Amino acid sequence: MIDMVEREDTIISEEEAAQYDRQIRLWGLDAQKRLRGSRVLLIGLKGLGAEVAKNLILAGVKGLTLLDHEKVTEESCRAQFLIPVGSEGRNRAQASLERAQYLNPMVEVKGDTEDAESKPDEFFLQFDAVCLTGCPRDLMVRVDQVCSQRNVKVFCGDVFGYHGYMFSNLGPEHHYVEEKPKAAKPSQESNDGPEAKKPKVDPNETTMVKKTASFCPLKEALEVDWTSEKAKASLKRTPPDYFLLQVLLKFRTDKGRDPHPSSFAEDAPLLRQIRDDVLEAQGLSSDLLSDDFVTYCFSQMAPVCAVVGGVLGQEIVKALSQRDAPHRNFFFFDGLKGSGVVDFFGSK
After folding, report:
1. What stretches of the chain show up as alpha helix (H) in DSSP?
2. Smallest Cα–Cα separation from 62: which of 30, 111, 102, 104?
């Protein structure tokens, strides 16, 4: 029997029951209790971070800490609806705090203006889940390694122009429940034969099935050995966005910033060179990522932030409430094709 994580000290008040009535009807009181007992750290308050914050606050987590040391710029306001007009020069977390809290007074929303990279490992362990958006690769890998050892759920996400992604690591054993149609008992009058052997499903009755999923660390997911037979077999179903992510993370590491429209003439050839270097180092052809990728990966676009933020926020809610099957491990969104792609690396 699988032991589900219960939060015995979490009590839903009448006011909360009224506030979250729709959600309780959707995924049940126990799931809402687990969500109401959870504290989340959200790192990065650009457009994607704002979408994730909104979704978590409305879902009804116990507490949400917004961590961002950057200042508000004109560009960062374009896809960030939590920052009021005229906030240029303020800290992004502090500028987002008032509107974020207004979404749901029942959630404890805090702002932290320090740099996530300066935080000690113990800081991240006080949360039930940590979500990193727009962060450097080294920080994401470090936080993932620290949290996975203490059963803290880790999520990463980003938006680059028309493209976006999310990654989740819920540990080697993530327990959850899934609602399934209940098989009806066979009638005593049923005759023997092929039809009698088929289980009959009653669409009006459901049952909760306990399941377990296994996840791999972020470092392992980003460092696939493409010479192995398993990896070769999965290459054809691996979306180009997986390699685009690696290129953009390398650019961020090397330049200390993201590609910017104002420096397109400088950044575009550098991105193509990084693409060649990254794919060659993995023994792969540069044809996996066509030259025109540089046209569509600049800045954060509000519609893409909304889509990726919706998926990312929902995955965090599912993980904390332990309700429904999670994505393993990547979700990629290509705004040019208008569809999301889920792919798996290292998960069982």
Report:
1. 14-19, 21-27, 29-36, 47-59, 92-103, 121-124, 137-148, 194-197, 218-222, 229-234, 240-255, 264-281, 302-321
2. 104
Residue 341 neighbours by CB under 8 Å, 6+ apart: 239, 241, 331, 332, 333, 334
Q: Which amino acid is at 237?
A: R
What are 152-192's pLDDT values in tens digits?
A: 999 999 999 999 999 999 999 999 988 877 766 655 555 55
Kindly state the tokens that stand for 281: 């180092």
Residues 274, 250 contacting (CB under 8 angstroms): yes
Q: Pairing mode, if any, of strands 153-160 and 129-133?
A: parallel
User: Measuring CA to CA, which residue among 67, 4, 69 is closest to residue 37?
Assistant: 4
Mean pLDDT of the residues in the chain: 88
Is 218:167 a contact under the CB 8 Å cutoff?
yes
The Cα 346–Cα 348 span in angstroms is 7
Distance CA 272, CA 169 (A): 30
pLDDT above 70: residue 17: yes
